[in-house]
Amino acid sequence: MKSARFFATFGVSICLILASAAQGMTVIFEDNFDGTSGDINTMVPDIRPGSETWVAANFFNADGSVDNLATIGGSMTLAFRPENGFAYTLDASISGISGDIDWFGVGFANGQSTLISSNARFTTNVVVGTAWMLYRGENRPEPTPPDTMPPATFNVAQLGTGMKATGTPTNQGIINGANWLALSTDAGGDIDMRIVLDTTGGSGNWTATWFAKRPDDSFEVVRATTTIPTTSEANFTSVGISNARPDVSGVDGTIEFFSLISEPDLGTNLPGDFNGDNVVDAADYTVWRDNLGAPTEAAFAIGTGTGAGGISADDYNLWRNNFGSSLAATLVASGASAVPEPSSWLLITSVSGVALFAIRKASK
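Now predict its structure.
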């Protein structure tokens, strides 16, 4: 299945590259799971903005497979905090899903853990979902007549609070669920899931929209755009995948692809214009240089960095690629067109997405 779906995921990667070049989008995370069948915990994704590694229960493997252990689930996550001013698109492709009503989950959450526990699978306590969705190995439609079979169980798009259990009721990851409006009777097989987190409206106006499709189809909205409570915004601290019960009586499948991209609001924000004066120039370089290593993009004008969380060499690359995009004629006449260069270690740590895409393997 890895070979069969490689070209589809490679095509997605190429589209992301072209979109990034044309529209200022940034690939924050990407993983094609072309590693070994060993534990993925502490492994590095194909693309990352900094030093992030997978934090995972030991049944998740680097080749995307899931060990059939007698467990009650867990998660695999990457540390991430959204910034205001961006639209984030989270994508995951999972193939060969089979089993019972247990599920794979994909989305944004609060927390990271290597625990094998029901408390670490986006529903409650340790790793708690914020905007996420789950897809089951088996769906059960509403019984007719009632009570002739187990209760109805559908794929669900979840909006949780991300709040940990201490001092709050449990199951904060599933307090606001909605059955998928599309594909509602499907389960098992291959599925692509997508969540768009839109923070362009600033704090208090974050929204999420949920999508899904079969690999050969187009994405359909499975839950309409929903406003995220302001109190939940601080609880977006990770992204990843969960599994409810990876054992012989639960659910199985192979994770083929995972990515997170950011796109600024180009109607109001100019990528690289870190001081917000509508000109990408040397002054913006100074803002970047003076705040390099900051854990958030708070020093930047909203929506002008990469949106990857923190200020890094990737923000320099964004600035450099957009240098002069709105440069005033007076600055050009004065010769202020030289592009300052950062220290050599920053250049070494800059990641070339094109190179990473090019070296992917076509099969395991």
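The first helix runs from residue 2 to 23.
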